[in-house]
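Moderator note: this is an archived Q&A kept for reference. The question asked for a predicted structure of one protein chain; the sequence and the answer are reproduced below.
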Amino acid sequence: MTTHLQAKATLHNGVKMPWFGIGVFKVEEGAELVNAVKTALVHGYRSVDTAAIYGNEEGVGEGIRQGLQEAGLKREDIFVTSKVWNADLGYEETLKAFDMSLEKLGLDYLDLYLIHWPVEGKYIDAWRALETLYRNGRIKAIGVSNFQIHHLKHLMKETDIKPMINQVEYHPRLTQKELQAFCAEQGIQLEAWSPLMQGQLLDHPVLQEIAQKYGKSAAQVILRWDLQNGVITIPKSTKKHRIEENANVFDFELSAEDMKRIDDLNENLRVGPDPDNFDF
């Protein structure tokens, strides 16, 4: 059982990644963003997830610098993820995009770099760029986001290094069991984005009932469910009390019966785009 906020999963290349982190999707540049990242690090988070398309890498970098200083941490104590956007997929384009992300973040290396979406005809060349950056020691681990089984099979057939992470939409209404089983079989660690379904699940009666049983919030129950399913999770919040509440999921364990009740909420329902049918 994942027992504390700084517990880590071991990726297939031996790199250790925190099971729990903070995401900053749709958080605009500014004091709120900087404070959220700083607060998370001071509160004990050790993983921060951003992306080029979020347009907030500079603020994330500033939040990291302030958080490291206030918490008395070193760069190597934390795990930073960013992602290359669709418009920058391609070998040379991805190398340039990586340099730009690193510059905006103010970092010397990334712990994890992901291909954000599986754009047909482009993600193979982009992956080869990630392989180059990885071999050159500029990234500790490389992975993908929103890849389905057929995308992963194609990628592994055409390239040398297997992804270490697949970050996908994952929550009780979209459990993606087949994808999770395939990733587990291949040694690819699954990571959840939108674990709380952008807040749409928090009033669900089943989750409310389970939450009451454990003396927790529905959000905490969902995040605990993620962890017990062996899925890394990165809930987004900018509010100090939410950042603290989200991380308070290590002092209880859901029963097998309650895990199944949550699993049974699956409807294959997405709040984000379908990886096989997106246009951006």
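Archived answer notes: The mean pLDDT is 97.
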